[in-house]
Structure formats: structure tokens, C-alpha cells
Amino acid sequence: MTKGSSVGVKRNANLSNCESELFFWKLRLKVQSHLAIYPNSKVISLAVGDATEPIPQSITCAVEKYVHSLSTREGFSGYGIHQGLESLRTRIVEQLYNGLGVKTSEIFVSDGAKGCLSRLLMMFGSGLTLALQDATYPVINQLCSLFGQNIVYLAKKSEDDFFPDLSNAPHTDLIYFCSPNNPTGIAATKKNLEELVSFAKKNGSIILYDAVYSAFVEDIDCAKSIYEIPGAREVAIEVNSFSKLAGFTGVRLGWSIIPESVVFANGKSVLQDFHKVTLLTAPAGASSIAQAGGLAALSSESFKDVLKIIEHYKENARILLKAFASYGLEAFGGRNSPYIWLKIAGKSSEDVCDEWLERAHVLASPGVFFGPAGEGFLRISAFGHREDIIEAVERLDAIMLPCKSC
Ligand code: PLP
């Protein structure tokens, strides 16, 4: 058959519903066009949710040791268990879910939260309905399109209260809830989550709780895990990751928790079905090298180093929040999260993004990339080296503050 001629295979119709350009591609195109006009400009990105600080040496040394052991007869290991190392699952429970009733048998270690979410949605199958916060992590919307699932956005309670109005929310099979939320940077309070759990129970829905930014939570009235909420073990699956916790965005390691008490309408165990899906799609679990890194990251010694890096990003967020306040702009988030949700008025979020890029060579994410209610906002990421954050602020000062010498 010659190259380019069509075959008789029908294209998966769901693929035509997925956007070919996810938001990070759209941002990359913006930067490419900008550099074509200003080839010598140094663009500072406040747009991307990727870790920037090096992984602590205490973690990489442990990984190095493990890698060398693979070259020995005693240390070599082949296929792993699909659920991940028992020792890592135990450490996850001890370090992050102490006293919350999570069992190691309920944890599935994977190649990251995105992998967990796609496998979970694959398990639930096509045709079901899923509710989303507006705005939220845009990948979910695309995954649902891929798996032929139907999305509804939950309306917010009010302009400045980002928790959905559950009193008017439709019943859906699943509710994807991200807290602290990407992109708004808002962490739901425990009271909010109690409402969410009782709403899910009343409607017979399952919550997919995305907690990948939980390490940033500092307010005691906010939860780091949905399992801090009574009754959540009956209706909630939690997904988390080492990506934002320990800078593993490139290493790839995450986990899902499926409590044994979450069951389908026919009483069958969701956990048992997830075993099937994982055995079929990731039979040997996550890379053993990445898992060695995860084990080290959660050790009492390295965990302190991990938290120092989170604190670095939080300080970045405070610097940015201070600057936005001096411009008279209203900003949300940035406290229990690495994201700031910056309110803009009078122009579209893409126009403001383009203006910042053109005039300050600073890239932000247009809020509209994250859902219809994202219009009117920019998402600002506090992931960055300190000197870049400071320089971004100086450049923004120059275009946002009235000229002092005028
Ligand atoms: N969930 C949310 C809300 C995210 O923002 C991201 C990545 O930015 C992910 C999941 C994916 O994380 P991972 O790198 O573990 O796949």
C-alpha cells in the first residue's frame, strides 16, 4: 500500500471531539510566534504548571543506589506488581494518610495522576455523565471526549465563591473535583467537601478527587485529602502524584486510592474492577526506578527537603500576589496552591495574555483555556526560579504601574 492512501478502518469518532491542541500547545505556539518577531527576547513563563526546582539530592542519591543495585544478582528485579511496591504504598499511607483509614491494598501506584485518571475514566466506560468545576484542569474534558462520556459544568455559587452551587446541580454519574483547584488555586474548605460528599451520597455519584496540589494546603479549615471528610470512603476515589509534591513531572509517579467501600449500582466492587483495568493496561505497575525515588521522597529525611521546595513556590506566589495587589488587581488562590487566579476586566483573557507577552515578554495562561467561566481571568503559575519571578514582576511593574518620573 502506498504511503498516505486510506485504509478501510473507521476512525474512532470520539477522537474528532478531542481538541488537537491542548492548552500547553496553544501556549507554545504563542511563544513561537512571539520569538519570530522578537528573536532576542527572553520570555519568562508564568504559564506552565511544571516543577522548576531540582529534585533534592537525598532522593536522587537513593535512586542512584537503586539503579546500581539492578546490576547485581541480589538487587536485580524484573516485572513488578501492578499495584506498585508494598513498601511504597505503606509509606504513602504512613506519611500522607495517617489515621484516615486508607489501606495499602486500596492504593495503585502508577506513572502519574494523568495515567490514573485516564485508567479510571476508561474503567467507567462510555456514555456516562461527569460533572466538572468551571474552570478546571482541561485534560479531563478531553479524556471524557476520548472515552465518549458527557460533561456538564457546575455553576459557581457566586462570582467570587468558586465552590459549585450544589443546590442547583444536576445529578451525574461521576464528579471530578480538583482541590486545590487548577487553575483557580482555591482549596475547598472541609465544610465545602462535607457538602460535596453528602451531595454525591444523595445522588449515588462517585467523586474523582484530584489532590495533586494537596502538599500546598496550609489552612487548617482545608483538607489535604478527601478522606478527612466523614463518609468519603463510600463515595470518593482520590488521585495524587509526586509531580508537584517532589518535582517528579519528568520522573513520572502517582497513585490512586479506591476504597473497598466504593461500589457500583449492582453492588460490585470498583476496586476489583480497577485491579482488572490496571492488570490489563499496566501489568508491571510504575517503573521500579521511579518508585525508588518515591520511597526516598517520603522518607522522614527527604520529606523535609521536599517541603522546603513547596515553600519556595509558595514564597514565589506571595511575591506575585503582592505585585498584583500593587496594580490594584483582584487575585484569588496562591495560598494553598501554586496558582493565582487573576481577575482582569475589559478585555478577553487571550488579549491580556498577548499584551503581557508583547509588552513584558511574560507569558500567562488565558483563563478561558480552563473552561467557559475562566474568561475574565489569567492563571499565573508560581512554579519558577526566584530570579525569574522577580524579573517577571519588574517587567510587569513597568507596564502596570504609572510612570514614577512622569
Ligand atoms: N491533575 C491536575 C489537576 C494537574 O494540574 C496535573 C498536571 O498539571 C495532573 C493531574 C497530572 O499530573 P501528573 O504529572 O501526575 O500526571
Structure description:
With 406 residues, the chain is of the alpha/beta class. The chain folds into two domains: 14-55 and 302-401, Alpha-Beta Complex (Aspartate Aminotransferase, domain 1); 57-299, Aspartate Aminotransferase, domain 2, CATH 3.40.640. 39% of the residues lie in helices and 15% in strands. The chain has 13 helices and 15 strands. The strands form four sheets. The protein has a seven-stranded mixed sheet, with helices on both faces. Strands 11-12-15-14 form a four-stranded antiparallel sheet, covered by helices on one side. Helix 4 packs parallel to helix 5 (138-146). Pyridoxal-5'-phosphate binds at residues 49, 112-114, 137, 178, 182, 210, 212, 241, 243, 249, 254. Pyridoxal-5'-phosphate (PLP) binds at residues 49, 112-114, 137, 178, 182, 210, 212, 241, 243, 249, 254.
Entry summary:
Keywords: Aminotransferase, Pyridoxal phosphate, Transferase. GO terms for molecular function: pyridoxal phosphate binding; transaminase activity. This protein has a 7-stranded mixed beta sheet with strand order 2-10-9-8-7-3-4, with helices on both faces. The chain has a 4-stranded antiparallel beta sheet with strand order 11-12-15-14, covered by helices on one side. A two-stranded parallel sheet has the order 1-13.
What key attributes describe this structure?
406 residues; alpha/beta; Aspartate Aminotransferase, domain 2; seven-stranded mixed beta sheet; four-stranded antiparallel beta sheet; 39% helix; globular; binds pyridoxal-5'-phosphate; Aminotransferase_I/II_large
